[in-house]
Amino acid sequence: MRQLGSVRHTPEQIAKLAEKLAKGGRRLSFCYEAGPCGYGLHRQLTDLGHDCIVVAPSLIPMKVGDRVKTDRRDAVMLAKLHRSGDLTAVWVPDSAHEAVRDLIRARATAVRVLGKARQHLQGFLLRHGRVYAGKRGWTLAYRRWLTTVRFDHPAQQVVLQDYIHAVTDAEARVERLTRQIEDLLPHWSMAPVVEAVQAMRGVAFIVAVTVVAEVGDFSRFDNPRQLMAYLGLVPSEHSSGATVRRGGITKAGNALARRALIEGAWTYRMQARVSRKLHDRLENLPQAIRDIAWKAQVRLCARFRRLAATGKARVVVTTAIAREMVGFLWAIARQVQVAPAA
């Protein structure tokens, strides 16, 4: 094992280093940890004809007693683990898939900002004793009520209006990004998968496009349990000998897709039925996909009621349903032929 020093992270310097190391017909294999620099380095090296993997940091084998961490030691450790085949590579999306995923994540960020803006407004009103008498907030009636709220001091009236503007601006941002996703979908190679998984109850457009963008190639999972683990929906376990201890879900892997699925799983608390909206989504789908979706709905609605009847917390029941949803989504996605990205 030889240490060759450091190199600046620029395309020119990377190409120069790769050319130098490849002299004499050497076959090069690179690896680096996934991080804020993204996949540009991976794409450059593979375009140059070299092997390269992006490593999942959370799955790098670590020595329990090792408390010294430096760039040099990390580089040597990665090289040794790569040589022995002990590193776990992450899936690297193509540039088009990454662009769609960035757009979907931007919308998710906008939704969080909207939630915070609404909390700020409601907290301000509550602090000053302005309480809405209606049943639900953010309806048309609630918004009309906001226009009637008055404060004695002009500064507080300015604060109220500023909070209202923050909410309306955030809502406009969410709507704008949603339209962009809808406009872009027909031109995306994964569009058939997005349409197919919408056969599932609780998997409308936003949930579907989020899960597909975050999971990517469903065929890389040999079975649904692998996908469940990737989404962090499997129980944690601390067992020894004959004693088996299982805890909450691991929450490993992709949090955005996991949250979307858990939100969708709430719909299974009602009885199994095909609503008008779901009927419209099913209209042009193959019968095989419809059959999987209906089988899922019958099973999951019954399972939700059965688990809830045992007294389990609703959030626990919903998470269990989300885990089973993944198995049916995997089965549906495997029914779809995806054209290679252009």
Automatic annotation (TrEMBL):
GO terms for molecular function: DNA binding; transposase activity. Residues 196-271 form the Transposase IS116/IS110/IS902 C-terminal domain. InterPro entries: Transp_IS110-like_N, Transpos_IS110, Transposase_20. One of its GO terms (biological process) is DNA transposition. Residues 6-126 form the Transposase IS110-like N-terminal domain. This is Uncharacterized protein. It comes from Azospirillum argentinense.
